[in-house]
Design a protein that fits this description.
Length: about 160
């Protein structure tokens, strides 16, 4: 079984990675962390002018750091960093690696009655177009994550 995680950063993705890693470990599967960076060529002229390799290097570093911490806990994990249209690239990678399930973080919005996909076009696109099962994990901005858990990426 292959479990794909749409990864944004260690702090923002902590709950998603933790849930996916526990699931993957319980199922004896492989966990794949995927970070997709927007393509500066498609974002706009200003993005093209200021584009550097720094975002890619930082993303790669974050993925490797989380990989190491999860491997220390017995998780079969690999990481991938891609550049492209975020939602479409996630779906493309789902097919390429033959993932069985995609774990994805969503935001909790303050206004009651608003469903998450009305405010997040990437999540909306994935809900409508993803060819595999989705597991949506809500990210609560007010959640108190113990910094020691984040340092260890503790399951």
């Amino acid at each position: 079984m292959k479990v794909l995680v749409a990864f944004s950063s260690p702090k923002r993705s902590y709950r998603v990675v933790k849930a996916a890693a526990n699931y993957s470990k319980a199922m004896g599967g492989e966990l794949v962390l995927l970070r997709v960076l927007p393509d500066p060529q498609k974002v706009g002229v200003v993005a093209q002018l200021i584009a550097t390799d720094r975002p890619h290097e930082k993303a790669q570093s974050q993925i490797q750091e989380v990989e190491e911490k999860l491997k220390d806990q017995g998780v079969n994990v690999t990481g991938i960093v891609k550049i492209g249209e975020v939602a479409k690239e996630i779906i493309k990678v789902c097919s390429e690696i033959k993932a069985d399930i995609l774990f994805l973080g969503t935001a909790k919005f303050a206004k009651p009655g608003l469903f998450f996909i009305q405010r997040d076009p990437i999540v909306r696109y994935l809900v409508d177009n993803c060819p595999i099962n989705l597991c949506l994990i809500r990210h609560d901005d007010n959640e108190n994550i113990d910094p020691s858990d984040l340092d260890k990426f503790k399951l």
